[in-house]
Design brief:
Layout (H helix, E strand, L loop, with lengths): L10 H9 L9 E3 L2 E3 L8 E9 L2 E9 L22 E7 L4 E7 L4
Antiparallel strand pairs: 1-2, 3-4, 4-5, 5-6
Length: 108
């Protein structure tokens, strides 16, 4: 993930990511043999970080259920180890309007 030459997403691109959140429901990840899913992606606080990966401009989406972790969550990336389904990450491609690479934190 490269944020050195980060691009600035438009309001329309963020709105597109928001409007396609339901795609997260169709993604899954494995953790110790269990299939894990996010049933209500719209119920999370979300941070959108512009990244470039293999020349593509993407949005790294960082989601969490408890904004009380940090008062400045709107300006600082929230990074939590474990916490289970309360914390997940995904990648959104504004060109294809598709989510991918869902990662749900461990249950530890």
């Amino acid at each position: 993930m490269n944020t050195d030459n980060a691009w600035q997403p438009t309001a329309t691109q963020i709105e597109s990511a928001e409007s396609h959140l339901s795609q997260i429901i169709g993604l899954h990840t494995q953790w110790l043999g269990d299939t894990r899913v996010i049933d209500n992606p719209g119920g999370y606080y979300r941070q959108y970080v512009p990244i470039q990966l293999d020349g593509k401009k993407l949005l790294f989406v960082n989601a969490f259920c408890d904004r009380g972790l940090t008062a400045d969550w709107r300006s600082r990336l929230v990074d939590v180890s474990d916490g289970g389904e309360c914390y997940w990450k995904a990648t959104y491609d504004p060109v294809t309007e598709r989510y991918s690479d869902l990662a749900i934190n461990g249950k530890g």
